[in-house]
């Protein structure tokens, strides 16, 4: 019974560049939990302090924060200190997944296919990366999400503008081999050997550009769930995603982003440990394909809340 979940805080808002998305996610989760009889309360970590969080005496919390100070291990560490069970992965797993460069190092060590990359701190570093990776090349802010601080570079002349843009988000830049192909995403739920992948979603964005606008605002992006893939390829991609989830040490839930090239080779791009829960979000879409409604997904995730230390 949901009454056994106690007083629940839905942590949302926050201070990152993804605050607007988090406000939508949190509101959706809050309304869903309330509809199921959960004693849920919204708590904006960008407007309310840690003393106020402790004073609320929440029995558990649902983390609907995205980006820095919410998805990167900071809030998870605070909750561990306060002894409040929380949804999603641990401090360490959250911190690793939020750092796309560190994630890549782990993927490579585990033999999981991921695009070639280079780390850049200066504009000259990006020119050197282009010599190695070729064009087109993707440049990302490695500690942001929601496609913020991301630029596709077609020629050398694009590098100065991309460098200036992404430097506003991060001091360290990730240059990555551009994979031409189909864009997929896979939600994974559970912990350890019980971790399981949900149906694969294919994202078909206008002009192949799945940017912030096409993610959260426009209605032109199409989604196919389950994606039109052979059973064998579906199983292969899902296996890579579960391996990624386990390699980073995730539990509760996460979402893995994948590119599938023309040779049907999947490439793992990154893993998101606090995925969006807006009306455009993908984990609820994948859950729905298995017969799990949005509100039931929220309750399931909240039931898995725990401290990890």
UniProtKB/TrEMBL annotation:
Its cofactor is Mg(2+); Mn(2+). It is found in: Cytoplasm. The keyword Zinc does not apply. Pathway: Cell wall biogenesis; peptidoglycan biosynthesis. Mg(2+) 1 binds at residues 257, 270. Belongs to the D-alanine--D-alanine ligase family. HAMAP family: Dala_Dala_lig. This is D-alanine--D-alanine ligase. It comes from Pelistega ratti.
């Amino acid at each position: 019974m949901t009454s056994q979940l106690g007083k629940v805080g839905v942590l949302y808002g926050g201070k990152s560049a993804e605050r607007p998305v988090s406000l939508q996610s949190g509101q959706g989760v809050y309304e869903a939990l309330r509809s199921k009889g959960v004693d849920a309360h919204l708590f904006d970590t960008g407007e309310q302090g840690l003393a106020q969080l402790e004073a609320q005496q929440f029995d558990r919390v649902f983390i609907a924060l995205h980006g820095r100070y919410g998805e990167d291990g900071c809030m998870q560490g605070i909750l561990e200190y306060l002894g409040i069970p929380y949804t999603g992965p641990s401090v360490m797993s959250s911190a690793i997944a939020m750092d796309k460069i560190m994630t890549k190092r782990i993927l490579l060590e585990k033999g999981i296919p991921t695009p070639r990359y280079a780390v850049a701190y200066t504009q000259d570093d990006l020119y050197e990366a282009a010599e190695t990776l070729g064009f087109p090349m993707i440049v990302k802010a490695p500690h942001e999400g929601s496609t913020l601080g991301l630029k596709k570079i077609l020629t050398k002349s694009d590098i100065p503008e991309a460098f200036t843009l992404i430097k506003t988000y991060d001091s360290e830049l990730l240059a990555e081999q551009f994979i031409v192909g189909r864009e997929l995403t896979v939600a994974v739920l559970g912990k350890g050997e019980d971790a399981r992948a949900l149906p694969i979603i294919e994202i078909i964005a206008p002009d192949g550009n799945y940017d912030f606008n096409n993610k959260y605002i426009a209605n032109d992006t199409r989604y196919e769930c389950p994606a039109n893939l052979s059973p064998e390829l579906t199983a292969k991609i899902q296996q890579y995603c579960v391996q990624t989830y386990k390699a980073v040490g995730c539990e509760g839930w996460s979402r893995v982003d994948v590119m599938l090239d023309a040779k049907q080779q999947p490439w793992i791009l990154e893993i998101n440990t606090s995925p969006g829960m807006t009306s455009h979000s993908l984990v609820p879409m994948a859950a729905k394909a298995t017969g799990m409604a949005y509100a039931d997904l929220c309750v399931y995730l909240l039931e898995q809340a725990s401290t990890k230390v």
